[in-house]
Write a structure and sequence with these properties.
Low-confidence stretches: 1-6, 177-194, 270-277, 358-373
Distance between the termini: 81 Å
Helix content: 40-55%
Number of domains: 5
CATH architecture of the largest domain: 2-Layer Sandwich
Strand content: 15-25%
Structural class: alpha+beta
Mean pLDDT: 78
Oligomer: single chain
Radius of gyration: 37 Å
Largest sheet: 7 strands, mixed
């Protein structure tokens, strides 16, 4: 092992000297000699950010046991390295820039390093899926070894030289917007234009030319294209687009006039409206609270709305921090909303960003004197967010300045406005999930707001007939409680709703006992006293709700309810009166229909063997003839239930076989209710 490490060390020194002669600043990295920090430099390397070590220095710099070599990026080496940790992001880069992948490439443990030469000074920063290594950074070079992985060259060619224009294009792609898989380029880019053409042609076949043109013009407006650019791109395409079947033929002049009016209408509706002028939809608020588990992003969007920022407007980090401070958002919250965990959904930034070299007070201006290396952010259009996140448009509750000063006040305001608007009758857990809190927090909110809670309880009498609807207690079940339902006596005493307890209460003469189940409460912002309301509940409703609750949050909840109802209806059907009709060879065709579904409706075939034991078979003609041959005429019966629920029971079984679970559940509910 020592011989192998020594051999690798000699190779690293030889490789370091070769790189230094090629104009790269190199440093030793601990590697396996320091397993807890394998990528930490083995020396103080600040001075090598400004100069390249000499061959004599390299011999003394690398201590024994070092298994890794680092190349200093930035102006000292004229080197920029793009570190891709996400393979999907790397493939998208290769598809977008096939001319730039013919460069020196190193395979890393999680992705690839792409080396580029550049004269520009660039800061090191992250993007979704990797890092850009520039000033004051370094990368692990081949043939370094960390653990069981060895960095290796994939393309052993000279690094590609990037011009300023090419570098801007690459950086804009890496820092492009979160919701549109497209390069964030200036207005009028050919890639953005090309994307509208297939969209228009696809929509024209579905909704007609005019509707498709209006939709595409709206999309182009939201993406920053001008009205004249959309006319130049789609005007002639609209003129010569084929008519749908049955449409009246029009002249090219009338079609062009029609295109101008339609595009103008799309831009007129979106022109001059302040960002979120009609408010942020509640569906978007709830989505971000649930998925991001933080309020910082949605509160920053509320700041944009209250500050009257325009859709598509670009802003800097300093501008966002300064504006948000006036609305109660501190610097840490803004940083988290723009670049922290709360800023990313599904691997992409929600607030679109782009990289620019210089910032000027007039806006985005490259190659101008000013502050270098800025990341700019764009105020996201609400319509684009709703569309791209797959949400539906919903009402917007009125949220004021005082409501966004803290996470507590924001969630409390959303809860308050929802109750004030709807007075909903929903479970407390649903209200909690809506704004990303737990049920105890909702209870505290209700107390703080003075909400009147009307608790609903469903109740049905406990009788011998409905005793089977109660569950049997298993060994692993809790002894003293059932999941949201119980048995209650007239004097208010409550017992767990286990079957053996119900049987004991009936034997003890408690005929006034009833089965109770907690239903969704109603929440009213009226200030009246909270109370409990009892309402009549059918046994079938209880069985269904109990099965769904006991099944938890799994995907088999509906089937659990169906199985519970099947068992209940089957037990109830066997207790019903049975009519036995004797069968003869000549009456089989008349009594048993050829349709298989109809054959299962009537009940079952019944006969008795020589020992007097009953023999039950499905109601089918072939089985009936065989039983008549075996047991003789007059000794085979068609057992028909008088309970009309049997018909619904049979249809429910057929619906379940056909995969129609909701239909089966509906039929079983009717059968169980009798």
């Amino acid at each position: 092992m020592e011989k192998k490490v020594f051999s690798l060390g000699k190779r690293l020194i030889k490789r370091a000297k070769h790189l230094a002669m090629a104009g790269y600043s190199v440093i030793p990295v601990h590697g396996d000699s320091l397993p807890e920090q394998p990528k930490k430099p083995a020396i103080k390397w600040r001075k090598f950010q400004k100069r390249i070590p000499s061959p004599a220095e390299i011999d003394s710099l690398f201590p024994d046991g070092v298994t890794a070599l680092g190349i200093v990026c930035g102006s000292v080496s004229r080197l920029l390295v793009i570190d891709f940790d996400d393979l999907l992001r790397y493939r998208k880069f290769c598809r977008r820039f096939p001319q730039h992948i013919a460069t020196y490439t190193v395979k890393t443990n999680r992705g690839f390093h792409l080396y580029f030469r550049t004269e520009r000074k660039l800061p090191s920063h992250q993007f979704v899926g990797g890092d850009i290594k520039g000033e004051r950074s370094y990368v692990i070079a081949a043939p370094s070894q960390i653990g069981a992985f060895r960095y290796r060259e994939v393309k052993d060619i000279s690094p590609l030289e990037l011009s300023n224009e090419e570098l801007d294009e690459v950086l804009n792609f890496l820092q492009s917007g979160p919701l549109v898989d497209r390069v964030a380029t200036p207005r009028g880019d050919s890639q953005e234009k090309a994307d509208l053409l297939p969209l228009y042609r696809r929509l024209a076949k579905q909704m007609g030319r005019n509707n498709a043109l209006y939709r595409c013009a709206s999309v182009a407006r939201d993406e920053g294209l001008g009205e004249s650019e959309v006319v130049a791109l789609l005007g002639q395409v609209h003129v010569w687009e084929a008519d749908r079947h049955g449409m009246r033929a029009e002249s090219p002049e009338s079609r062009l006039s029609e295109a101008l009016r339609t595009i103008g209408s799309a831009f007129k509706k979106g022109h001059g409206i302040s960002v979120y002028g009609s408010g942020i939809p509640n569906s978007l608020r709830e989505f971000l609270l649930q998925k991001q588990r933080s309020t910082v992003l949605i509160r920053l969007l509320e700041v944009f709305r209250l500050a009257k920022w325009r859709e598509g407007e670009w802003f800097s980090l300093g501008e966002a921090i300064g504006t948000a401070a006036g609305f109660g958002l501190n610097r840490k919250s803004v940083l988290d909303a723009l670049g922290g965990e709360a800023s990313v959904y599904d691997g992409r930034y929600i607030i679109r960003r782009r990289y620019v070299e210089y910032l000027d007070n007039g806006g985005l201006k490259s190659r101008r004197r000013g502050r270098p290396c800025q990341i700019m952010y764009q105020v996201p259009p609400i319509s684009a967010l709703v569309r791209q996140l797959g949400l539906t448009w919903s009402p917007s509750d009125n949220i004021g300045v005082e409501d966004i000063k803290s996470a507590h006040s924001y969630r409390l305001a959303l809860h308050r406005e929802y109750l004030r608007r709807l007075s909903p009758e929903v479970p407390k857990s649903w209200l909690a999930k809506r704004i990303g809190v737990n049920a105890r927090t909702i209870a505290r909110y209700n107390r703080a707001l003075g909400v009147s809670v009307v608790e609903k309880v469903g109740a049905c009498s406990l009788t011998r007939r409905v005793l089977d609807s109660l569950p049997k207690r298993r060994r692993q079940d809790m002894k003293n409680s059932t999941n949201g339902y119980w048995i209650e006596l007239a004097d208010g005493r409550r017992f767990p709703a286990w079957r053996h307890i119900g049987s004991w209460l009936l034997k003890a003469g408690n005929g006034d006992a009833r089965i109770c189940m907690r239903r969704p409460s109603r929440y009213v912002m009226s200030g009246e006293e909270s109370r409990v309301e009892y309402e009549k509940m059918s046994v079938a409703s209880f069985v269904r709700a109990r099965a769904l609750r006991d099944a938890g949050s799994t995907n088999s909840r509906v089937h659990s309810a169906i199985n519970a109802l099947f068992d209940f209806v089957k037990r109830r059907g066997r207790d019903a009166a049975v009519e036995r009709i004797p069968l003869f060879f000549e009456s089989v065709a008349r009594q048993i229909a050829p349709d298989k579904v109809a054959e299962t409706i009537r009940g079952y075939l019944l006969a008795y063997d020589p020992d007097g034991r009953p023999v039950e078979r499905p109601v089918k003609r072939g089985i009936a003839y065989r039983m008549l041959k075996q047991f003789g005429e007059g000794n085979v019966y068609l057992a028909s239930f008088e309970d009309p629920g049997e018909l619904l029971y049979a249809f429910a079984k057929r619906a379940l076989r056909l995969g129609e679970a909701p239909r089966a559940l509906e039929l079983l509910m009717r059968a169980a209710e009798g």
